[in-house]
Design a protein that fits this description.
Elements lengths: L1 E5 L5 E5 L7 H4 L4 H27 L2 E2 L8 E2 L3 H7 L2 H33 L5 H13 L2 H12 L4 H8 L16 H25 L4 H9 L4 H12 L1 H26 L11 H11 L3 H25 L5
Antiparallel strand pairs: 1-2, 3-4
Helix pairs in contact: 3-13, 4-8, 4-11, 5-8, 6-11, 8-11, 9-10, 11-12, 11-13, 12-13
Amino acid sequence: MTTLTTTPDGTAARRSVPPPPRSAASRAPRQGGTVLAVPALAWYLVFMVGPLLAIFVIAALHWPGMLQPVSFAGLGNVRTVWDDPMFWDAVRNTAVQLAVALPLMIVCAYMLGYYVAQRPPGHRVLRYLLFIPGLISTPAKAMVFYAALSPDGLVNGALQGVGLGSVTDAWLASPSTALACLIALDVWSGIGFTAVLFAARLSSVPDELGEAAELDGAGHWRTMWTVHFPVIRDYVGVMTMLQFLWTLFGSAQNVLLLTQGGPGTSSTTLSFLVYQKAFIAADLGYSQTVGVFLFLVGLVGLLAIRRVFRQTY
């Protein structure tokens, strides 16, 4: 540190002053953050990493039920799963579900969220209406779809009312429509919640960007996709990841409540196959082998989404 001092002859001179000594408290390393993180890290290791490792261990065992003797199977479960047509039906159904539900949900939710972010008349009420499916429990949503899609439900009644009785079908019991009904439930239950989150993020985008685009002659469509979308690209990537994981791992509950994987295996997904083999067929080794495959699919999917949206984290 340098200060100015005055000499006896009246001239100014610079003099170096040593910096004040640092206190012991300031020199001590700050360990408080690490100590506070220990309980969370221990919880993560026990309840997150532990079950993940258990999946790989059980996948190498022949375990025909919780109270049955366990033996080492090695790669036997992998060969059993690989040769099972039900597994490949589940892979096909899961691929169709992700390929249809995920793009439809994200694109429609973004467009709906953009509309809400423009603050149209009644936009506050619209936000609450869009959030309603997220407030309904999964069994209640399944009952709504069952009431609408059963043979004597609302959909068939409406079709008969407009003279389209020949189009009616047992939607949940038909091999050609059961999976489509589950996809419709996924989209309906997730699109409103995602749209509200997109609207909240779009509301933080400066209004000057949209105004400048309008002055340049851009309409709402170009402004939405060429101005606002690049700004929130990272957020869209995060929401795509979350919806991908939810659709991949959370579809079992809808399948269980509405179709039980049928008719046949027409609506069996990978997550439901894990449940079915573990709790119905009592084949834990097979179940967790599919669980390992499901984990790898989720990991590869997340990396692919990250690459598509050029995530920086």
